[in-house]
Amino acid sequence: MKIKALTRSAASAQAPGSNVSRQPRNLDPALHPFERAREYQRALNATKLDRMFAAPFLAQLGDGHVDGVYTMAKDPTSLERFASGSGDGVVKVWDLTNRDEVWTTHAHENIVKGMCWTRDSKLLTCASDRTVKLCSPYSTPSNSAPTATYLGQGAFTGISHHRSQPTFVASSSVLSIYDISCNSSTPAQTLAWPTSVDTITAVSFNQIEQSIIASAATDRSLVLYDLRTSSPLHKTVLALSTNAIAWNPMEAFNFAAANEDHNIYIFDMRRMDRALNVLKDHVAAVMDVSFSPTGEELVSASYDRSIRLWSRASGHSRDIYHTKRMQRVFSCAWTPDNNFVLSGSDDGNIRLWRAQASARQGVQSARQRQKLEYDAALRERYKHMPEIRRIARHRHVPKPVKKAGAIKADEVAALKRRAENERKHSRKGLVKRRPEREKTVLATEH
């Protein structure tokens, strides 16, 4: 057998489209003394371009609602469908691809307090008219009668569906568990804390530990229930009441609570005596909170007319989104593809935002992807540098939010000083008075 091997010397190697021989590159740092300076300048330029191209707002969906949007729900079986409920009882289903509504109905007589999807793509809605209605947006035309109606003893405030079973829970003064497979309009069982008579304002099924239910009430409490034992597990009382609860989709034991004290508390249900993290940047009550599909980030809607994006491990928001016309934000959600954020506000509009303000969707060449990855790596490497940190952290916020933030910072500083002074005085009271001081006081009294 005769074998011919093709060989090419380094001297004959040429760059494509040129007659110049390609020279080998020596990576010895001693021969490149300005490499760090060049990298820093590239990182600075990449940070500036990232902020220059930041345009988070994408679009407003359709004509919105006539009244404010107070609740939203994502279809777990679809990437482009989600539902919204307004203050006049109207429920709409939207298509994110066309950014328009595909189904609508007048489900309730007053404000829609909660909604969720079943596993077979049916929609459950509840309101303060003491009814829960089951609709089929994919198989029935708009304004059609509901498939089923479930009755309760009091006004409903929230609803959540079991991940794998045809069961849902609705909150009022108690937690009512309904079975969709049964032809009964009454609850199969009810759960409540033994000594509590307050209204439950929020409820949520754990999507991993599927028998666990978390609820929040007007008595400032967070209560965990277990369906396997049909009994409550634990109760924690916070400083103010909680408006919404969201479970981490990737960590079975962690959940976030949107509180009236402007903060978001992340708890581990195995240890409820302290919060894992407290997210504090809002200057008004946090009305809603939602985890990203990866479980690493959160989005929150606040009464201060803004939405904020957070990292799960950080105490401050990484971005704030707002517009001049957006009013109080009552609901928010992360799209299942992790690329967009939805918000519903008191002005009746549903807005679509980019999860990464400077990111652009669409087909990218290999060279574009390589450049973006290189810029992201440079920003991460030099993020501690003062100028890069200042540019990356700078955000334009509305004037009322900025003023309220300054006032809140002064109040927090005053509370810290007061607590520190009280500790100092308490320590002084425990120390025995000096004899010289006693003689001076006695001489003054005589």
From TrEMBL:
One of its GO terms (cellular component) is small-subunit processome. WD repeats lie at residues 62-104, 279-311, 322-363. The keyword Ribonucleoprotein applies. It holds the Pfam family WD40. One of its GO terms (biological process) is maturation of SSU-rRNA from tricistronic rRNA transcript (SSU-rRNA, 5.8S rRNA, LSU-rRNA). Its main location: nucleus. InterPro entries: Sof1, WD40/YVTN_repeat-like_dom_sf, WD40_PAC1, WD40_repeat_dom_sf, WD40_rpt, WD_repeat_DCAF13/WDSOF1. Residues 433-446 have a biased composition (Basic and acidic residues). Residues 9-24 have a biased composition (Polar residues). It comes from the Eukaryota. Residues 355-441 form the Sof1-like protein domain. Keywords: Nucleus, Repeat, Ribonucleoprotein, WD repeat. Belongs to the WD repeat DCAF13/WDSOF1 family. PANTHER family: DDB1- AND CUL4-ASSOCIATED FACTOR 13, U3 SMALL NUCLEOLAR RNA U3 SNORNA ASSOCIATED PROTEIN. This is Sof1-like protein domain-containing protein.
